[in-house]
Amino acid sequence: MGRIIAIANTKGGVGKTTTTINLGAGLFKLGKRVLLVDLDPQSALTASMGLNPGKLTRSVYNVLIGDGTKVGDIIQKTESGPDVLPATIDLSAAELELVSELGRESILRDALAAVKGKYDYILIDCNPSLGLLTVNALVAADGVIIPMQCEYLAMRGLQLLLRSIERVRLKLNPKLKITGILPTMFNARTTHSNEVLDETRRTFGDKVFDVVIKDSVRFKEAPFNMMSILDFAPNHEGAQAYRKLAEVIVNGS
Question: What does pTM read for this prediction?
């Protein structure tokens, strides 16, 4: 039975999509069957995996609103290896349309149940809010990876996010666990990045992965070429870091 991991943070621009794509690629290269779920109306994951959101007639939106579309109907194969459950801009309307639905927080969980057994890992790329879409991801997930930019304001918001995740665990998903906090966009040359990383580790202890994702333009170039960094620059330290993260996830399962 597949393990579902939500990649979540209410702050934007911290590396959620980058982590989803590259961790997915790392898991795939370890021989795992991987599905990436795009739960962000901006559709960055979908586009980065070589799909054109503007040309898709159905997406995860159709699954969530219950128009009869099944997850298996719209999963897309990709050249990078992992399968993708794509998103389009239509997803931006989903929260309003679902607000009056019974069991609205568990719609994604129920939909993924039909394909969960076909994958070893399902990674959900969440949008930068704690609205109904992200709550759906947290209810569906077994664990949460929190990418955290190595900056003070990003670290400051982490405690609030953890409290929100704990509320979801208590009220909606008792099996939900923090898989780990992933330091991202780390710049070893600056005192600020080093201080933030040190303080994060002091505050959150073993919740913080030993793996650190350093800031690099390669992470911007790879999706431009519709590739993971593991395929675009396999010897780059960013690729090595995500390979190591994939190994940590597998060995910790």
Answer: 0.95
